[in-house]
Specification:
This protein is of the alpha+beta class. It folds into two domains: 38 residues; 113 residues, Beta Barrel (Lipocalin). A hairpin with an 8-residue loop joins strand 5 and strand 6. The relative contact order is 0.13.
C-alpha cells in the first residue's frame, strides 16, 4: 500500500517536471519560431551606433544591440563617453516593439546603483546605405525636475 503511494507520488512529480520542460520549450523555441515564420515586417536585429561629439574634448557614443522576435525586441543600450572630463560607461537592458515603421523602446538599468530610465521613439528609415533609426530619447532630468528629450540617429553596423 505504501509502495503504491510512493510510486504514484514519484510518477506525479516526474510527470510535472516533464510537462514544465515541454511548456518552457514551447514558449521559448516553438512560439518564436512560428512568429518569425509568419512575421512580414522589417528586421532591425543587429548592432546599431550613434556617435556624437559634444565639443573638442567631450563625446558620447551610444550603441543598441537588438534581438528581434517578430515585432518584439530585446537587447542592450550602452553609452560610452567622456563628458566634462569624466569617462562613463552605462549599460541598460531594453525591451520594446515595432509597429508601423516605428520602434518604441523602454530601458532599465543593468546595475543597482542607477535609477535612470530612458524611452525611445524611433522611426525606421530606408536609405541608400541601409536602414537608419531616427527619433527621440526621453529622460527625466533631476536638475530641472522635468522630462527632456534628445535627438537620436542610429546607423546599423551589423545585421
Amino acid at each position: 500500500m505504501i509502495d503504491t503511494i510512493i510510486v504514484g507520488a514519484l510518477s506525479g512529480v516526474i510527470a510535472t517536471i516533464i510537462c514544465l520542460f515541454f511548456q518552457s520549450y514551447f514558449k521559448k523555441v516553438t512560439v518564436p519560431w512560428f512568429q518569425k515564420l509568419f512575421y512580414k515586417g522589417v528586421e532591425i536585429a543587429g548592432k546599431w551606433e550613434y556617435l556624437r561629439n559634444i565639443s573638442d574634448t567631450s563625446f558620447e557614443d551610444a550603441y543598441l544591440n537588438i534581438k528581434q522576435y517578430a515585432d518584439n525586441i530585446k537587447g542592450t543600450f550602452s553609452i560610452i563617453g567622456k563628458v566634462f572630463g569624466m569617462k562613463e560607461l552605462i549599460t541598460y537592458d531594453i525591451s520594446g516593439y515595432i509597429q508601423n515603421r516605428f520602434v518604441v523602446v523602454a530601458t532599465s538599468p543593468t546595475h543597482n546603483d542607477s535609477i535612470l530610465h530612458y524611452t525611445f521613439l524611433l522611426k525606421i528609415k530606408d536609405e541608400i546605405d541601409g536602414l537608419r533609426l531616427e527619433g527621440r530619447l526621453l529622460f527625466y532630468d533631476d536638475k530641472t525636475n522635468s522630462v527632456l528629450s534628445d535627438i537620436l540617429y542610429f546607423k546599423r553596423k551589423t545585421a
